[in-house]
Structures are given as structure tokens and as C-alpha cells.
Task: inverse folding
């Protein structure tokens, strides 16, 4: 069907166009070197000593006694001799010193995934035989106030020397760690991984010496002290080791400032993957609205970020459309309010929503927004199926003990074709009736309003209600109750009727008692139709009858004359 060259071009264009499809944002890998915010050491032999501003970070211990308790046999011959049977080594370590370090992680978004975290110290005077262990601190300290006993002024450590986790982060012997131009490095990845996930407080790192459980035999010297007793009795004898110190020093941040060697300051080298945040609009991908309308929908947030998040909105495509976004209580959703002004331009808009992590550099994040298409179009008038109540008048007068009558036309609109029922609510002393009370529009009903003999004088309101086909409408009419007898309704006809009045004349009606009432002008309402009124129909019947009667009279007269 296609030539080989055309198929190649088509395939190449598909591959090229596919490469232009935007991919979802990938997590960003970042490496930072964070200098120590606080560094100090604490000394067991100086339990209240505050070394936070000193030039060195010292770690180690002193061993002042290594004792062997032995079972011996003493020969009291002169000079006395003894024979060692069995010995048990007992040693004592004192004056321990621990290093404490704290790093400010405020620039790293919480929820980041730590790939690797390395603590780096620069040695000042090494000691190659000090075993050390590295732990994460459980209680936080203040550099200027920390000591062996207290972490803050007036607040003691739960465990003297620094309350730390049981989980061991790293261990080794000074001089046997990886060492390059004087640097010692310790792996603290697990601790800072939990810190940035919100599983542990960022209180810092503890480096503590781990003295050996035994020493070499040749370090033991004989003591002149022994306990005498009977010959061939088992006794205790002591061998004492000479006191010694095992301490190493590292650069503190204070010393690196004094000597202008910032590269020697304690640092945390951390490699992490920033959090991901994506938005999803919970609405139709295409919205259709009209000028003057408002709507709202939710925006769902899928995020590993543990900090505060905002959503920025932008409207592209024209003027007159505004969007307002508000967070909901749980933080997993935002509510977006879309308002189309009455004078908004017709056409297509794009509503863009972008996540904004508050207080952090966006370059550390994987951010994915959402967009919604909006079409603003002119509102089309939709015919509804309903009906209208069109009264001949909306103001009535009726005398006590009398009544008045007027008509209401029920006009259908659209495809309305249901039976409509009429009812009314009247004030005390007035009564209203319909003839007929129901029907299918179009039809006319005669409404009669009657006032009792003691009806309250003055102006009142009648409420007429019509219901049918799932539609209901109301009509309010004013009525004035007067003293005396019946008075016809007076008003102008509605727009759908034609109103005529005889010039210089008035209409007089009779009450039930037969008394005449004159001087009250009455509007004559004549409804016009395409086929003519009732008067025309009457004439069509009357004229032929008159002609026939005249012919009969002439015929009879002629016979009488003959």
C-alpha cells in the first residue's frame, strides 16, 4: 500500500513526535554538604563542664586500674613464696568523653528519601586504638549549655553523657576508618533517613568510645600488696596496671573559623531524593459554563511532602474568568471556585493549577500540576413546559355582604398539557370560588369573591394557587372591602386583552335586593380572537330570523286583504 521510503518517513515521524510527549516529572537527586550547626563534647570527669565553644572535639577515656583477683598458695618459709592457682581480670575505665553534633536540615524538604548520609570530621591529633560507636540522639541539646549531666540549662539528660537510640549506626576504631588527608567518615544514613520521614527527631549524632573488655597481659605489673594467712591457703592477690589516657582530638567549627580552614569543619554529606507532589482535578476534563455562572470542584493531592503545601491557579485564554483555591482541613484536597463574569469573553479557557511547597526550593521536588479546559458560551433560552395565570384585574373592590366576579385565563407555554387545579387562601371574612376549579390549559375560569356582612374593612390580599403537571404558580390579588353592597371589579386589562370603554358613559349594576347602583365606571373587557367575538355569532343567527318573520307577516297580511 505504501512505498518503503514512505513507511520509513512515517515511522520516523511517529518516533520523533512520541519523544515530544511530556513525561511525568521525575524525583530530583541532590547532594548537599551541611556544616555543623552545633558541636561540642562532654566529659565524665567534668560532669558540669560546658565545652561548646572550645576549639577541639575530644573523644576517649582513661583507664586507671586493671586488677587481677587471683587464688594463690603462700609458703611462709623465709623468704615467703607464693604460687598463683587461678586469676580473674577486673578493669576500670573512667573519664569518658563523647562528641555531640547537630546539623540543620531545614533546607531539605521533609518527606525526602535519603540515599546516603556521611558524617565527616577532620582529625587534629589522632589516636589509632580507640574503638568508637555512632548513635542517633533521642534528646536534643543546646551547644552553649550541654554538659555530661545536662542537655539544656536546668534539664538533665535521661542518660548521662547523651541519651541515644539503641540502634547502632556505625562503629570502628580510630585510625582504621577510611582516612584521606586526615578525614574520618562515619555512615549515618539510617538515622537521617528516619528524620526526614518524620520517624525520628533531628536531635543530632553521638560519637562515644567503646573501650575493650580486656588488655594485654604484659600491661599488668605485680603489686607488693597481698593478704597473708595460713600456709597453703587460697588467698586473693592484686596485679595493678599503670594509669593511661586514650584521647583523640578533632577540629571544631570554632577552630576552623579561627584558622580559616572551612574545609576542616564537621559536615554532613547527604544525598537525597526530593518529595513528589502531583495534583488531580476531580471534575470533567472539559467544563461548559455561561456568563454569570459559578461552579466549584475539588483538587486531589498525591504527595510524599510532609510540609505545608499551597496550590497556585492561573487562567489562560481571555478575561472575565477568575479562580480561587482554598485548602480543606485534611490537607489532601483543595477546593477550587470558578467564577465566570457577566461580561466574560466567550471562548475557550485553560485553568492551570500548580503545587507550591511553602518554604522550600522547588528544584528539590518532583512537581506535577493539573489543568482543566473551560468553554464559556452564550446561554441559550430553553423553553420550559409551564402555564401562565393572566387575570383581567389585580385590584378588586367588594362591599360587605356583596360579591364581585372577574376572569382568569390559563395560558400554556411550551408543550404543557396537564390538568391544572385551582385553590385560594383568603383572609377572614372573604370567600373565593372558581368556575371551573380545574381544567387543561388553555381555559378560562370565573372567579367570584364574596364578602361577609362583618368582613374587615380596608385592603386585603388574596393568594391564588394553580398546580399541575409538576409545575406550580401563585398569583396575589389586592381586594378592598367597602361599606354597603356589591361593586364590580375595576382595573385595566392585561397586555393580552383588548380594553374598550364607551365615551362619557357609565355602567350600572343591580344588587341582589334589586337596588340600582350608579356612577361607578366599569371597564368592559372584550377578548379578541381570530374567528370573531360572540356578538358576531348572535347577529348571524338573528338576522335570518328577522327576515323570515317579516316575510311571514307580509304573506299573512296579503291573505287577509284578499
Result:
Amino acid at each position: 500500500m505504501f512505498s518503503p521510503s514512505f513507511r520509513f518517513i512515517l515511522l520516523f515521524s511517529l518516533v520523533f513526535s512520541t519523544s515530544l510527549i511530556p513525561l511525568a516529572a521525575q524525583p530530583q537527586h541532590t547532594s548537599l554538604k551541611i556544616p555543623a550547626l552545633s558541636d561540642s563534647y562532654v566529659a565524665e570527669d567534668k560532669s558540669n563542664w560546658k565545652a561548646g565553644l572550645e576549639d577541639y572535639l575530644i573523644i576517649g577515656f582513661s583507664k586507671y586500674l586493671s586488677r587481677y583477683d587471683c587464688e594463690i598458695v603462700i609458703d611462709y618459709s623465709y623468704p615467703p613464696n607464693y604460687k598463683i592457682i587461678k586469676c580473674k581480670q577486673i578493669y576500670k575505665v573512667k573519664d569518658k568523653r563523647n562528641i555531640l553534633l547537630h546539623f540543620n536540615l531545614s533546607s531539605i524538604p521533609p518527606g525526602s528519601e535519603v540515599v546516603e548520609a556521611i558524617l565527616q570530621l577532620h582529625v587534629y591529633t589522632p589516636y589509632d586504638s580507640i574503638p568508637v560507636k555512632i548513635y542517633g540522639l533521642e534528646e536534643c541539646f543546646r551547644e552553649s549549655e550541654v554538659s555530661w549531666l545536662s542537655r539544656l540549662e536546668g534539664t538533665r539528660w535521661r542518660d548521662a553523657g547523651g541519651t541515644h537510640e539503641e540502634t547502632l549506626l556505625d562503629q570502628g576504631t580510630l585510625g582504621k576508618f577510611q582516612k584521606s588527608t586526615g578525614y574520618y567518615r562515619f555512615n549515618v544514613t539510617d538515622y537521617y533517613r528516619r528524620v526526614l520521614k518524620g520517624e525520628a527527631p533531628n536531635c543530632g549524632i553521638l560519637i562515644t568510645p567503646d573501650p575493650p573488655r580486656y588488655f594485654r597481659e604484659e600491661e599488668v605489673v605485680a603489686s607488693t600488696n597481698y593478704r597473708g594467712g595460713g600456709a597453703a591457703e587460697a588467698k586473693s592477690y592484686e596485679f595493678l596496671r599503670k594509669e593511661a589516657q586514650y584521647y583523640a582530638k578533632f577540629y571544631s567549627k570554632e577552630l576552623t573559623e579561627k584558622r580559616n580552614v572551612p574545609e576542616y569543619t564537621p559536615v554532613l554529606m547527604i544525598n537525597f531524593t526530593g518529595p513528589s507532589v502531583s495534583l488531580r482535578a476531580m471534575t470533567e476534563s472539559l467544563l461548559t459554563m455561561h456568563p454569570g455562572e459559578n461552579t466549584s470542584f475539588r483538587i486531589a493531592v498525591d504527595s510524599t511532602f510532609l510540609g505545608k503545601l499551597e496550590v497556585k491557579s492561573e487562567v489562560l485564554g481571555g478575561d472575565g474568568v477568575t479562580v480561587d483555591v482554598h485548602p480543606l482541613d485534611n490537607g489532601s484536597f483543595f477546593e477550587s471556585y470558578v467564577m465566570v463574569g457577566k461580561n466574560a469573553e466567550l471562548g475557550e479557557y485553560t485553568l492551570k493549577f500548580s503545587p507550591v511547597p511553602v518554604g522550600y526550593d522547588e528544584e528539590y521536588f518532583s512537581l506535577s500540576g493539573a489543568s482543566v479546559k473551560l468553554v464559556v458560551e452564550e446561554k441559550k433560552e430553553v423553553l420550559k413546559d409551564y402555564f401562565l395565570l393572566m387575570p383581567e384585574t389585580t385590584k378588586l373592590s367588594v362591599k360587605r355582604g356583596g360579591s364581585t366576579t372577574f376572569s382568569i385565563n390559563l395560558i400554556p407555554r411550551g408543550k404543557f398539557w396537564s390538568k391544572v387545579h385551582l385553590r385560594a387562601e383568603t383572609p377572614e371574612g372573604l370567600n373565593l370560588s372558581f368556575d371551573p376549579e380545574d381544567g387543561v390549559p388553555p381555559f378560562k375560569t370565573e372567579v367570584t369573591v364574596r364578602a361577609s356582612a362583618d368582613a374587615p374593612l380596608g385592603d386585603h390580599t388574596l393568594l391564588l394557587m394553580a398546580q399541575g403537571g409538576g409545575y406550580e404558580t401563585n398569583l396575589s390579588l389586592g381586594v378592598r372591602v367597602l361599606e354597603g353592597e356589591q361593586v364590580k371589579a375595576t382595573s385595566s386589562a392585561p397586555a393580552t386583552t383588548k380594553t374598550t370603554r364607551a365615551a362619557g358613559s357609565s355602567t350600572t349594576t343591580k344588587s341582589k335586593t334589586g337596588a340600582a347602583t350608579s356612577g361607578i365606571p366599569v371597564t368592559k373587557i372584550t377578548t379578541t380572537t381570530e374567528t370573531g367575538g360572540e356578538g358576531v355569532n348572535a347577529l348571524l343567527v338573528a338576522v335570518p330570523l328577522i327576515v323570515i318573520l317579516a316575510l311571514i307577516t307580509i304573506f299573512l297580511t296579503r291573505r287577509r286583504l284578499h
Observations:
- Residues 29-272 form one domain.
- Residues 425 and 463 are 5 Å apart (CA to CA).
- The first strand starts at residue 29 and ends at 43.
- The chain has three domains: 29-272, 276-376, 386-510.
